[in-house]
Structures are given as structure tokens and as C-alpha cells.
Amino acid sequence: MRLQGGRLAALHCFLHCARQLSFARAAELLHLSPSAVSHRMRKLEEELGFPLFQRRPRGLVLTERGETLYHTLAQSLGQIDSVLTQLEQPGPCGQLRLHAMPGLAQGWLLPRLADFYHRYPGLGLSLVTGNSQVDFGASRWDGALYYLPAPLPGLAHDSLMTEDLIPVCSPAYFQALDSGSLRQARLLHDASAWFGCRPEAEWQYWLERHKQPIGEHHLYFDQTELAVQAALAGLGVAMGRGHLVAARLTAGTLIAPFGPAVTAPCRYWLTYPAEQKKAPVFGAFRDWLLAQL
């Protein structure tokens, strides 16, 4: 059956009848007479070739096919209503596909996304995290957030912010640590801190600047947030990144008793194909992101 104007009107009428399970109540909502609604449903059933309702003394009951049609219509109209709501909003509309390194996504970006959606209600975001480099030529990514010593060649980029490195642990772990010595501590590593780095890279960098040897006890993870969670659980000392552990240091769930922070060898970058600068959806996200700094 083709969806022509009269049939669309009949389906709209059916949706109200199926929700109310009453021709009379549906008629009130549609500003029609109950007999007109009943007639429309009879005609629709004849065109479809199967009944939509069981007509009983105490009201209507949907048939199995009626149930299927009702749920399909309700879902479809809900999607249409959502799209119309987005289109009515000021500003750009569309979907953004963003890749981000896990630590930055979890510890910095997510707490700020409510403000993004408040400012751009017509935009949707598909956020995927990972430690690998995005191949923009082979996939449909709009941009990527990286933690790197330098920007990747051949792509446009914006420098977002520098980072500090500071060892952090739970208060209980520090109290139990023999003489409070970092040398005796278990070091918790993000073994994939940036592309091509050694598993101990961040710890080695901090220790060299404090002229301390690396210890003998180590535990490795593939995300900085996992290392920080391990520190919270009392498993050892994680190399915290300042932007990502600041809230937990303020709350006192983590402490930094082993010495001052050092500027990290990496910083955060927004990387993207150059043509994305002209794309309204990506441009809105980029403007918002830079305003957060």
C-alpha cells in the first residue's frame, strides 16, 4: 500500500485509536465524531486486507498485526519528531564522528559535553576512544584528539593545552609505604601514553628530571585512567596528568606526596583534515572546544 495523503491521515487516526484503545477517546483528540473514526478504521482495514482491532463490548484490543503496525508507527513518528526538533534549533545540525585517546575523553572532555549539547542542541556526537592513529583517508572521522609530543604531519591541527606530570596515590597506600620512599613503591604505567613510546616513558621522564632511579616494582595498563583507578584502589603510584587528576587531588581521594610536577613531553592536539574547517558541524565543535581552554 502506497503512503498517499488519505492513507497517511488514516494511519495517524489509527495511531490515536491504538493508543487510546477507544474510538470515542480518539475522536475527542482528533476533533472528529466517533462514527467518523470508526469508518476510517474500517476503510483502512479493508485496504490492508486484515483487521487491526478486535472490537469487544468493553473496548478495543489490537490484533497481532495491529500491534506490529502500532509499534512501527510510534517509533517512526518519534524519530521524525526528534529530527524536526533538531531542525528547529538555531545553529548547525548533524552528526560529528570524533576519535579521542581514552584519558582525555574520560578525564577532560566528558565532563564538559553537557555544555556542548546545551549550546548546540541540533548536533549529535559519536565519540570513540582508542590508542591507535586514525586513518582519515580510509574512514569517515571528522577529527581526533591526541596526546603527542608534536602534531601529525599532513593534517590540520590546533594545539589545545600543555600537560603536567605528577605521581599520585591514595592516602592509604602512602601511609602503608615503607618510609614513604618512591623507590619502594609499585609504579603504575600507561604503557600506551602516546604513539610509539616505551611502556615506562612518562615515569622515566619524570624520574630523570628529579634525578631518581626507576624502581623495581611495576604494573602496566593501556590507558592512563586505568592506572589512576589502580592508584585509587591502593595498588601503587600512578603518573598522573594534571588536567585529568585535578578533581581527585582537590577531593583528597588522591594525593601527590612525592615531589613537584614537571611539564610533560606531550600536549593535547585536535587533528583533522584541512577541509573540515569549512564544515559547519565540525566548525561548531572546534569553536566550542577552543573556547574551553
Automatic annotation (TrEMBL):
Belongs to the LysR transcriptional regulatory family. This is HTH lysR-type domain-containing protein. It comes from Oceanimonas doudoroffii. It comes from the Bacteria. Keywords: DNA-binding, Transcription, Transcription regulation. PANTHER family: HTH-TYPE TRANSCRIPTIONAL REGULATOR (PTHR30537), HTH-TYPE TRANSCRIPTIONAL REGULATOR DSDC (PTHR30537:SF32). One of its GO terms (biological process) is DNA-templated transcription. One of its GO terms (molecular function) is sequence-specific DNA binding. Pfam families: HTH_1, LysR_substrate. Residues 8-63 form the HTH lysR-type domain.
